[in-house]
Amino acid sequence: MADWATYKPLLTALALPPVPFLVLVLVGARLILPRRGWGHAMVLLGVVGLWFSSCQITALWLQQGAMKPPPPLFGLQQQRLEETGRAHQAQARRTPRSTAVTPPAAIIVLGGGLERLAPEFGVSALSPSSERRLTYGVWLSRQTGLPLGFSGGVGWAQQGGQVGSSEAEVAARMVERLHGVRMTWVEGASSDTRENAQRTVALLAPQGVREIVLVTDAVHMPRAQRAFIEATRKALVQHPEWPIIRVTPAPVAYWRPSERPLLDWLPSTDGVSNVRQVAREWLGWFAGA
Questions:
Q1: Domain 76-253 is in which class?
Q2: Phi, psi of 118 (to 5 degrees)
Q3: Among 5-9, 65-69, 151-155, 278-282, the least confident range
Q4: Residue 128 CB coordination number (10 Å)
Q5: Which residue has the higher pLDDT, 124 or 229?
Q6: Greatest CA separation found in the chain?
Q7: Distance between CA atoms of 2 and 161, rounded to whole angstroms?
Q8: Sheet of 148-151, strands arranged across
Q9: What is residue 253's three-state secondary structure?
Q10: Domain with CATH 3.40.50.620 in the chain
Q11: Which residues make Cβ contacts (< 8 Å) with residue 151, sequence separation at least 6?
Q12: In the 3-class helix/strand/coil scheme, how is the chain assigned residue by residue?
């Protein structure tokens, strides 16, 4: 499994836009002389694919149509978590310090990438996606009073290189220095979403945690939520004494239409990045990753 997994970044990059459409253009160009009609059609199809795979409107369509992320954590759900957190804090105050109080729920932030060496800091730093997830996790922890954890190790794209701190260790260091918050759980051995789920459930369930409030990007949430639900079911089969864990999604980073809708139909940096991201999630969903 590990040998196959090391090829995942390369295979994924080849399967994502714009590579398939570039191949289509090249094949069409080769066919123009022997089969002119087919050649022109393939070139045209490839160019159209390149255009729309670079537009934000395509990312918006795929986000809502293909991934269907759950809504933000607002209203009654957040109110329930706040009440749960207040009850936990009240119980902790009544309990002697020498006695550990099991938290009823845990806010778990999933890693979204790591910059191995940020020149401006001179050390490892989280990617913008990870930072946004972590910031929301800290805010949600303060709102609800529930403890915070982070799950993220060294991704497959970084395997085999010079491996330093895991993403979870970098997140724990950053959140303590920037927000004055100490992580309750740090899971730094996972390499992908499936391992995030398996290792996090194995870490929390023996401690009696009954709910995971899952923080990740909206477009990543359907796949992440499925992985965590499957992990809780498998863990319960292997360890019937563990509690049933509820998975509550808390997505961030929804994509929204621009204030000038025409711009969403034009190629852009955000369009290229977001279409690649949602295509990667789609591939991961069907691959069961």
A1: alpha beta
A2: -85, 115
A3: 5-9
A4: 12
A5: 229
A6: 84
A7: 15
A8: 185-187, 148-151, 106-110, 211-217, 246-252
A9: coil
A10: 76-253
A11: 108, 109, 110, 111, 168, 187, 190, 196, 199, 200
A12: CHHHHCCHHHHHHHHCCCHHHHHHHHHHHHHCCCCHHHHHHHHHHHHHHHHHCCEHHHHHHHHHHHHCCCCCCCCHHHHHHHHHHHHHHHHHHHCCCCCCCCCCCEEEEECCCEEEEECCCCEEEECHHHHHHHHHHHHHHHHHCCCEEEECCCCHHHCCCCCCCCHHHHHHHHHHHHHCCCCCEEECCCCCHHHHHHHHHHHHHHHCCCEEEEEEECCCHHHHHHHHHHHHHHHHHHCCCCCCCEEEEEEECCCCCCCCHHHHHCECHHHHHHHHHHHHHHHHHHHCC
Specify the range with the lowest mean pLDDT, choosing from 94-103, 121-130, 159-168: 159-168
Q: Kindly report the number of other CB atoms within 10 A of residue 147's CB atom.
A: 19
Q: Are 2 and 189 in contact (CB under 8 A)?
A: no
pLDDT at 162 over 50: no
pTM of the model: 0.87
Among 5-9, 79-83, 148-152, 218-222, the minimum mean pLDDT is found in 5-9
Length reported for the chain: 289
Other C-beta atoms lying within 10 Å of the C-beta of residue 271: 24
